[in-house]
Each structure stands twice: as C-alpha cells, then as structure tokens.
Amino acid sequence: MINREQIKRKIQKWKLLQNRRRVLIIEDLRVGYIPIYKVASTSLRNLICGRQKGHHFPEWRNRKLTVSKKRQVERCIRKSAGIRKTRRLKRKYFLFAFVRNPVTRLYSCYLDKVVRPGKEGKRCNLRRYGIETDMDFDAFARRIAEIPDSEADKHFRSQLFEIYHQGEWLVDFVGKLENMVADWQRLAEKTGLQEIPEIYRRTGAGNGLDQLPLSPETARLIARRYSRAIDLLGYRQEIDAWLDRKSYEQADTFQQRKAV
Fold this sequence. Notes:
Layout: H1 4-18, E1 21-26, E2 31-33, H2 41-56, H3 67-77, E3 78-81, H4 83-92, E4 94-99, H5 102-119, H6 137-145, H7 160-163, E5 164-165, E6 168-169, E7 173-176, H8 180-191, H9 216-225, H10 227-232, H11 236-259
Parallel strand pairs: 2-4, 4-7
Antiparallel strand pairs: 1-2, 1-3, 5-6
C-alpha cells in the first residue's frame, strides 16, 4: 500500500519533471532543439531523430525509423534541463524552438486531448484538471483560463515557459509554425540544417482564428490567459484584430435579438 510519503515523493518528482525542458542535441552541428508541445513537435523530433540515427546506430543509417527505434535515438540525443542547465547549453550550442499562435495551439490541444479520446471511447488524460471528453471548446477554454502555468500540463502551459525566463530568452532562434518554410530556411542558413520538415497535422486544428467555436467573452478570457506570450511572441496584432471581430459578432447578435 502506498503511504503518504511515497505519494509526496511521486508528486515532487512529477513537478520536477514538469519544470524541466527537453533539449534534443545535434552534436555535429552544435545545435539544440527545444520542443514545445502542440507546435509540430512530433514532426520536428522525427526529423532530428532521423538525421541523427546514423551517428548513434550506423546500422540504421539507410533504414526507416520505427517508433521504438526513434525512441532509442531520442534517448541518446535528449537532455533534460532546468533553467541553469539550459543556459549552459545555450553557451555551448545554438538553441532553437518553434512557436504558434497561443489560441490555435490551445484548440489543437483540445482536439487532441479531449475530442479524440472521446471519439475513441477513451478517458481524457487531463481529468485531474476537471476536464472531460464531453466538454465543448468554450467550456474547455474557460477551465484552462483558471489554471496557472505553475500547475498547468505541458500541452497547454504557456510556450514562454520553455524558452523565456525573467526577461531572458533561453534560445538563439524562435521560428513560427505559421511561417515554417521561410523560418526554417533562415534557421538552415544559421545552423547548417538542410531538410525542410514535413509538418504532420494530426489534429487538423489549422491556423485560423475565426473558425474557433469560442464566445466573445471566452475569447477575451483566453487572450488574457496567454497575454504575455501573445505580446512577446509577436501575435498581438493578429489577436487584437480577432477580438475586434468577435466584438462586432457579439454586437450584431445582440442587435438581431433586439429586433426580434
């Protein structure tokens, strides 16, 4: 039977892992990639593991990586890093990450962690946050707005957690998923990376804001939840224009109801 001390240690271990970031090292180029969940991280990890497989397993050089082999390669190139270690790695390697509009990223999380398991008859693995598979996106977003980053799951925690700390960028390059081809070319010029990644969109969330099933009130709530990331990652103009459209939408609906 698990006692309270064991439970406490498990919680502390979980929090420690939650507060560390993964860094995938491309040793021959002196480059490191920090994955951010729900920002094509699976595609980019596959790309890097495919590139590095021959360095660690020469016999796999001309073979397609299976899921299990990819995990083996990733274990060889992955470092777990807190803030101090990430700073040390940045002095040694050129670190990069890719980000995404925080609102469409949240919708991708919803489709992946709530809608998909609901369709497959599985339990939602975010249940500890009071999230269930029968939630619509509006209710899900309102619940997320109540959860601070210190307690948040990595799939909806602010992207800044991984790459920014107390006014300091922990990476040398930040690209945007919405501008992947052009930003990857810039990254390639700086690092020597050659392949342009083929982005695998499992959720089908896309990048459009107007398609999202959010009420104007919840849209503003989520914009406040991720306000700092919206500003620092360069999405403020896009988000403000979207919120303005939501306000007009709300006003039009009110006028229509009043007319009836």
